[in-house]
Amino acid sequence: MDAFSSRPCPACGSLGLLSVVVSTEGTRVMFTICHHCEDKRWIDDDREVPLWSLVPEFRRRWTARGTKTG
Ligand SMILES: [Zn+2]
């Protein structure tokens, strides 16, 4: 289950991405950070997602502001 480990960095193209699987609220997402440019991404189901969409506290704040989700 390390199919993501060989993907290049979307920012600089380096293959030095470090991937960490993180569980939140029963959802497994992947955090990647690039050794080369330190670009950080959250990946859910092979798609990049913003951090606030993963953390309930962030989600509440953003929706309270009227920001659309999804
Ligand atoms: Zn990079």
Q: Brief description of this entry?
A:
The protein is mainly beta. Helices cover 13% and strands 34% of the residues. The mean pLDDT is 79.
General description of the model:
With about 70 residues, this protein is mainly β. It has one domain (about 1-70). About 15% of the residues lie in helices and about 35% in strands. The chain has 1 helix and 4 strands; from the N terminus they run ββββα. The protein has one helix at about 55-65; strands at about 15-25, 25-35, 40-45, 45-50. A 4-stranded antiparallel sheet has the order 1-2-3-4, with no helix packed on it. The radius of gyration is 13 Å and the shape is elongated. The protein binds zinc ion. The site of zinc ion has 8 residues, from loops.
How much of the sequence is in beta strands? 25-35%
Distance between the termini: 27 Å
Helical run tally: 1
Largest sheet: number of strands, sense, barrel closure: 4 strands, antiparallel
- Name the helicity range: 10-25%
- For the largest sheet, list the strands in their spatial order: 1-2-3-4
Ligand inventory reads: zinc ion
Shape: elongated
Offer a few descriptive terms:
four-stranded antiparallel beta sheet, 1 helix, binds zinc ion, mainly beta, 70 residues
